[in-house]
Amino acid sequence: MASIRKRTQWRLVLEDAWRYKTYPTRKQAEADNDAYYAQGLMGLRVEPAPGGSWEVRVRCKHAPDLVKTFRRRAEADAWAKEREGEIAKRQFVDYREADRNTLGDRPAHPL
After folding, report:
1. Is the separation of the CB atoms in 25 and 42 below 8 Å?
2. Exposed / middle / buried, residue 60 (Cβ in 10 Å: 0-12, 13-18, 19+)
3. Cβ(6)–Cβ(69) under 8 Å?
4. Which SS3 state, helix, strand or coil, does residue 37 take?
5. 77 pLDDT band (50/70/90 cuts)?
6. pLDDT tens-digit profile of 6-31?
7. In angstroms, how far is CA 85 from the centroid of its own chain?
8. pTM for this structure?
9. I want to staple 70 with a disulfide (CB 3.0 to 4.6 A). Which of 2, 21, 40, 76 is the partner?
10. What's the rounded Cα separation, in Å, for the pair 75 and 77?
């Protein structure tokens, strides 16, 4: 029911090794690297950026698709197990709409 994947950003490190550009995919970083190489710049490398996040996707026919990102894999696993348990016990409550609204969003009460 749940799938967890690493969301790694990629960076293109420039010749002096302290300047770099960050890209969402390795393919984009390598394409930019090829463009730099065509211009005659040397010494560039593509490497994974430190950090990153974990994306959890819980899909079930009895509940809406849930997607959330976490900084640590353990947090992602725990959240996925909680949501799957709630769905299996039919205790899942969808709070996504409530999370999007704040008290400031409600209309003013007429006096």
Report:
1. no
2. middle
3. no
4. helix
5. very high
6. 788 888 887 665 678 888 888 988 88
7. 23
8. 0.59
9. 76
10. 5
Average pLDDT over every residue of 49-70? 85
pLDDT band, very low/low/confident/very high, at 78 (cuts 50, 70, 90): very high
* Domain ranges (residues) in the chain: 8-48, 53-100
pLDDT computed for residue 71 by the predictor: 86
* Cα 32 to chain centroid, rounded: 23
Give residue for tokens 């947090």: 75
Confidence of residue 43 (pLDDT cuts 50, 70, 90): low
**Complete DSSP assignment for 39-108:** TT----EEEEPS--EEEEEEEETTEEEEEEEESSHHHHHHHHHHHHHHHHTT-----HHHHH--GGGSPP
Nearest to 73, CA basis, from 60, 85, 56, 86: 56
Rounded CA gap, 30 and 26, in Å?
Answer: 6
The CA angle 75-79-80, to the nearest 5 degrees, is 115
